[in-house]
Write a structure and sequence with these properties.
Growth Hormone, Chain: A
Length: about 500
Amino acid sequence: MPSPESATDSTASHKQFLGQPRALAHLFGVEMWERFSFYGMQGILLIYLYFSVTKGGLGLDEAVAGGIVGAYGGSVYLSTILGAWLADRLFGSERVLFGSAIVIVAGHLALALIPGVAGVAVGLVLVALGSGGLKANATAVVGTLYSADDTRRDAGFSLFYLGINLGSFFGPLLTGLLQKSVGFHWGFGLAAVGMTAGLIQYSFGRKELPAAAREVPNPLPRSRYPLFGGVAVGAVVVIVALVLTGVIRVDNLAGIVILCALGATIAYFTVILSSRHVDSTERSRVWAFVPLFITSVAFWSLYQQQFTVLTVYSDKRLDRSIFGLEMPVSWVQSINPVFIIIFSGLFAALWTRLGTRQPSTPVKFALGTALMGVAFLLFLPFANGGEGSTPLLAIVGILFMFTVAELLLSPIGLSAATKLAPARFQTQMVALFFLSVSLGTAISGWLVQFYDPQNEAPYFTVLGLIAIAVGAGLFVSVKPVRKLMKGVS
């Protein structure tokens, strides 16, 4: 069984991609197209749900629509559990990644071609399942390209993050333009085309990935296949019954996803920490991941409001006039990726240059979360304004703060998950990081009900101060957390 280190040596020694292993280019590409389709669709999803029927939407209440978007986003990251389990127990990360890309294409086609609520239901379920499977496994496969002590690792993840944000930039721009000019379903159709391009590109490049990407770290014994198959069928039956009996409704989806993500988090940490395949050093590192996880939840519960509260804010508060033309609401979601594209390379170069002198992972997490809180406080000078009262430049500045905070936490979190993971739980530790994103995203949708456009100051103040407090708490705990990390920085 070839090790990640040997795979890295054979790949990196002959072929390079911007100073990184050549195979990173293929993962860069498929993730870029997946994010193009994901954020392109999500850029117009909320307004599709609450715009009136005469404007081409479904006419839902804004709070309900925000909850649906938050629940959907949380479900994407919650489904990384399934993708990680399939990779670690049955198929290996690379195969699950490929299959997930096919499911995503089907989901975007459903949104584009099936009208009304039925298209939303089928499309969002398929995109959530496929995106969850792709995200955890793409990240895990990137991890196989580097040895544990390779100082290029954080820089490589930052370049991978650049690919994510190239797609995130162009997706909302182009789908928003189509939505505004010819209708929502044309925008959803473009998302389907983008993901199809990513699938085709990856299908040609997947053979260059190291053998470690296809390994199954903890194979499920064949004798247990019927048991898990029965559990899967039972879960589907229960979900359908809960929907039919009204327990699961569109107005409580975000709360249900929060509860599911909390339960999955507790179960995952329990399984990993109690596993007989995890030694004492690995167990200590998993414990070190707990405060990072909590901090990450706080960060994402604010950051993901770009797709809930900030979308409503941009629709109603923002002056979107550019040279006499009104830009689509979704274009605001392309501002953050522009900054990511500009600064991710600079951050990658900074971490590479600093090498062993760069700030530790807990310090980066603490700074990122505190800056996210500061970004929310920057809304206060514009709170309670009238329609079109917030200058576009002000939102650009606030989203710049979002970007700096994101670069201090998100790619570093992906890297930390692979570094702190026990050998038997590589992909599932990445899924744990995405569970923090799931919780934060679902919370961002649940929080929409507390957003009052007539009295915005308390909302932005309370959430901003909570994030700053969480970041400060981790910062003062850096020494004990680093001790638990057992030499991992």
